[in-house]
Amino acid sequence: MGFRKIRAEITVAQQSIVRELKESYIKPNGIALSIDEHRPTRHDGAKEERIQATLEPKYDNLQIWHYRGGNCQSLEEELVMRHPPHDDIKDALANAIEISVIPKARRNMDLDSNVVYSSRFGGVSFR
Predict the structure, then answer these.
(1) At 61, phi and psi to the nearest 5?
(2) What's the whole-model pTM score?
(3) What angle, rounded to 10 degrees, do the helices at 73-80 and 88-99 form?
(4) Does residue 53 share a domain with residue 22?
(5) In this structure, are 54 and 87 located in the same domain?
(6) Using an 8 Å Cβ cutoff, are 32 and 3 in contact?
(7) Among positive and negative, which fits the CA dihedral 70, 77, 93, 13?
(8) Are residues 54 and 92 in the same domain?
(9) pLDDT band at 103 (very low <50, low <70, confident <90, very high)
(10) Once rounded to an integer, what is the mean pLDDT over residues 14-19?
(11) Which residues form the domain of 11?
(12) Are 34 and 52 within one domain?
């Protein structure tokens, strides 16, 4: 299992909550989790602008797909409405996309076959 990262939007009041979470839960339980303390500024733009700047190119380039019959009705409603009453789901999606990284390529892996034949002994072995 790899190292995990989440993002928390931090204000002055929320900073103490995140600190308590790190000190009282994550560290004592040895959880491999990093919290990215995100403090958006006015230079980053309004919340709606930040969300749109992250999600719109991904949808335009067909890099985000929704499963047919999947449980994403609330997200889809937030995405199509001009001023939705809540934007928490699409905000969470935008934050997840911003902190995600492309996985490193697996090196030294033979993807053709994991079966090795032995002409000398006539058997097979699995790597």
Answers:
(1) -90, 10
(2) 0.63
(3) 100
(4) no
(5) yes
(6) yes
(7) negative
(8) yes
(9) confident
(10) 88
(11) 1-39
(12) no
